[in-house]
Amino acid sequence: MNNRVAVVGVGQTAFTRSCGVSIRELCFEAFKEAMEDAENLSTEDIDASIICSAPEYDKQRSPSGLIAEYLGLTPKPTFLAEAVCASSSVGVRIGWSFMRSGLHQVVAVLGFQKMSELTSAESQERMLRGGDIMWESPFGAMMPAYYAMFARAHMNEYGTTEEQLAKVKVKSSKYSTMNPKAMYQKEITLEKALTSRVITSPLKLFDCCANADGASCMILAGEDIAKKITDTPVWITGLGLASASMSLTGRKTISSLSCAVEAGKQAYEMADLKADDIDVAEVHDCFTIAEIMAYEDLNFCKRGRGGKLIADEETYIGGRIPVNVDGGLLSKGHPIGATGGSQIRTIVLQLRGEAGKTQVDGAETGLVHNIGGIGLYGSVIIFRR
Amino acid sequence: MGFEKFGEISYITETKIADFVEYLEESQIAATKCKVCGKLHFPPRANCIDCLSSDVEWIPLSGKGKLITYTTAHFAPAGFEAPYTLALAELEEGVRVFTRISKDVKEDEIQLGMNVKLVPVRLAAERITYELKKA
């Protein structure tokens, strides 16, 4: 059994509108970068792989087999982990359990999505089925509509404003210009965000993230072996995972994600840390309101003060708790299965002091909040250097 | 069979609670109530979430409730025509409903917390659904 589990290598492709390569080649890029990052590691050392994807976007059935083959990971075990947008965080949780049980020593967690594989209509049709297909999809309920309903409730309950929402996008677009792997490389002004067209009220175009193609890869290792692979292991010290009712009719609150609150509690407890101890965080900003709810759900501020936290620029570098300083989903792009791994890569680089222009000085403890679907699955993972 | 008539596009045909559609056609919004523990389910369920009993009965709801949240969608997936307003409401029996607000209600008339009434609505091609009106 391994007492502690580390991330010993991270990699990701650029996130793009259309990658122009096959999924196997896309995954190869992320895998190669993670292998090079891990320094002292060869493919034979990896004794299991967990492939993470939302398979309704894939043409390939059972893509884990194909990808393991292409990366040279056969005959070691491989399988798919799916929790929609939280797939690769769930992959990390499974990998951690493998290590703690002693079943495996080094595991590759590889997330990917090639969303350009589908036409816009096909993609919308899948997003329409992201809610309860019996009681919600028949009304034409799309992903942005759910978050718009959360936003409306939050604004009504706490006085959160459209300007505060827009400021989340302004921040993310500032940092994405410093991340060469981000899809959007242009800063968006507050005025531009506020005057963009309404998608589903009160959310506008720039309140929404964009589909992307991309892959991410993390190599996890147990304590003894981790130190042989790299001089800079980043330890997983807290894991939280929870679920919530898929149907909004089964939720007690609409201005918060209960799965995130629960996952956060678990992760803080396991790491024996509080929100104040977090130096840098990645949160699941699929929509601007999602980042504001995350601040509150993770206790970065009091309930209802999320809008003020961004308005006061407390989540910028130099602020109280820098959040999504890699551009977040909003400006980096959101290739569903790859997103959690990309968030974790950002935190790993931050804790190693290798985040370049977006480095948060002296960051020792980082947090990743990754949500699947419409607040259906919530994962919170805490890392320490 | 029977549930395929529900909503603009239905993904479900077979369900134990297909009678819901027949109640709708008789202008009633019905919930299921567990005959063992008394738990009220809406949307209706064939199986009790609390005691796991499958012995449930149909109970008509008043349809009266209050609006919790809404959004007006300006883009629609294939098969739907924007704009339309999606909403979540709490009914006086303590259950919640996800639906649309009637096109008769203008967006500037909508306020969270306002009184609403859930009513059956007939659609083209003998389809049927429900929506919220201002109460």
Defining key terms:
heterodimer; A: 385 residues; alpha/beta; Peroxisomal Thiolase, Chain A, domain 1; two-stranded antiparallel ribbon; 11 strands; B: 135 residues; mainly beta; five-stranded mixed beta barrel; three-stranded antiparallel β-sheet; 8 strands; globular
Task: Walk me through this protein's architecture.
In chain A, α6 (162-176) crosses α10 (288-297). In chain A, the strands form 2 sheets. Chain A has a 9-stranded mixed β-sheet, sandwiched between helices. In chain A, strands 5-6 form a two-stranded antiparallel sheet. Chain A is of the alpha/beta class and 385 residues long. The mean pLDDT of chain A is 96. Chain A has a domain at 5-119 and 211-229: Peroxisomal Thiolase, Chain A, domain 1, CATH 3.40.47.10. Chain A has helices spanning 23-37, 63-70, 87-101, 120-128, 143-158, 162-176, 190-194, 223-229, 258-271, 288-297, 306-311, 328-332, 339-352; strands at residues 5-12, 48-52, 78-81, 106-114, 198-200, 203-204, 213-222, 234-243, 280-282, 365-372, 377-384. Chain A is 36% helix and 18% strand. Chain A contains 13 helices and 11 strands. A 5-stranded mixed β-barrel of chain B has the order 4-5-6-8-7. In chain B, a hairpin with a 5-residue loop joins β1 (30-34) and β2 (40-41). Chain B starts with 18 loop residues before the first helix and ends with a strand. In chain B, 33% of the residues are buried. Chain A binds chain B through residues 121, 124-125, 127-129, 132-142, 144-145, 148-153, 156, 197-203, 247-250, 254, and chain B through 3, 6-12, 15, 42-43, 68-80, 84, 86-88, 95-100, 107, 112, 129.
